[in-house]
Amino acid sequence: MRLSFPHMFQGREAAAMQVCSDLSEVISLRRFLPTADFLGADDVHFQGCCCDSRQVRAGDVFAAWAGSRQDGRTFVDEAIARGCAAILAEAPIEAPVPVCIVPDVRRAYGEICQALAGNPSRHLKVIGITGTNGKTTTSCLVAGILAAAGHRVGLLGTLGYLDGRVVEDATHTTPPPESLAPLLARMVRNQCSHAIMEVSSHALDQSRIAGMKFDAACVTNVTHDHLDYHRTLSEYRRTKAKLFDHLADDGFVVLNADDPGSASYLRRLNCPVLTVGIDLEAEISAVPMEQYVSEQTFLLTAGSESVPVRTQMIGLHHIYNCLHATAIGLAYGIELTTIARGLESVGHVPGRLERIECGQSFGVFVDYAHTPDALSLVLLTLKRVVSGRVICVFGAGGERDMEKRALMGSAVDQDADIAILTNDNPRGENPAAIFNDILKGFDKAEIARVIPDRTKAIHHALSMARPGDCVLIAGKGHETCQIIGRQRLPHDDRKIAREWLYERAELLALKERAKLEN
Questions:
Q1: What is the rounded CA–CA span in Å between residue 154 and residue 71?
Q2: Which of these, 427, 417, 365, lies nearest to 396 by C-alpha position?
Q3: Residue 242: DSSP 8-state
Q4: What pTM does this model have?
Q5: Phi/psi at 386 (nearest 5 deg)?
Q6: pLDDT value at position 233?
Q7: CA torsion sign, 106 to 111 to 117 to 121?
Q8: 69 CB contacts (<8 Å, ≥6 apart)?
Q9: Per-residue pLDDT tens for 74-85?
């Protein structure tokens, strides 16, 4: 039976979110933070913990830290007015309520949220997957393998939050502590054996997973992204490595031997490590065999055992995703044949090189690729399986990493035949400035055309396509809105492409009918 995993993330059913401040019993703060300094009291007894002053309830501890956009310390008065029992801070604050001082408020807040939820990660096998590209697909593949082996799983990531029964919309790739801890607790109540988590670099830097223990940590790759936040690639790599600090004593790590960023962590680890690779020597490897526009086959090898795997998702990057998932499955003692069945059960992942098929004579794919490496990998994949031209519609996010824009332009310049630059999520930035940054990466400027309106850009690309060509609509993938200024406007690349293709098919059918009637 084919796993209907992608359909879990369609028609999402909302579930009531338990928050940490819903507890009725009064708890000692010193019990959670025995080494903290207390001002105005020897201890604080509280009923919940909150970092949003607007959500504070009487008896809560208010966690105040300085964020990148707002300083929580400026909202202390509002929290006090709402009845908070104490303030959690990193330095003394003048306040009419006790102040608990800790070295890292974010970390303390995360630990408290996990503790209030019953430390659910101790009752689950938690699998953390991080990396620049491939987190979402790898997570889905791990879920497919575990399901094939008879396990019930929870999943937290870009596509949504599954607690073993109900799926919710995702607010973050990795939820904040006040959402994360209750979600994990619901997985425990729903009798999940494993929790699979995409762990973003932002989440690691902001201590969202504080208080958690991971059974497994997988690093798919570490390439250029988020340098608007992390500033340098070396800092980005150091942040990714924080996932290892959360490994349980008997935890294991999966690394990509072919990716320098992932492989660089091997030197610092003292725990069991499984390596995967295609080009370099690794414990788990694969050999690509056949690749077509609708499927591919590769030989999966672990030790002396090999098994062929056929997937509907194509590309070398997808084989790497399969290798990462395989390593995790093998570490849990799952047979290679069952792993292969689990990999094959995941027919597609929304917005990840998702094929749009409406009877047209050319290929259309929608992909989330929004980094230079991801764009290059997807374009190279499509070039191998189509006989005609590759037409790429793409842009770059506004108010985000500016350094990668020219690199994205260079990737498309090298690997696409025609480039159509359009808006991604420009946010408050001038789209013209974004396009100029991207165009700096082009040597063949004549292949590029700028059409700011994304819907018109998609229509134009589709209208250009001839039999045997392929249109790649990159950057937004599964997303269903576009952020322009402060507005979040409805927009779905897949829906727009399908509607145009069906309208074109109907028009051609009408013309053919008219021709026959005449």
A1: 33
A2: 427
A3: G
A4: 0.91
A5: -115, 150
A6: 84
A7: positive
A8: none
A9: 999 999 999 999
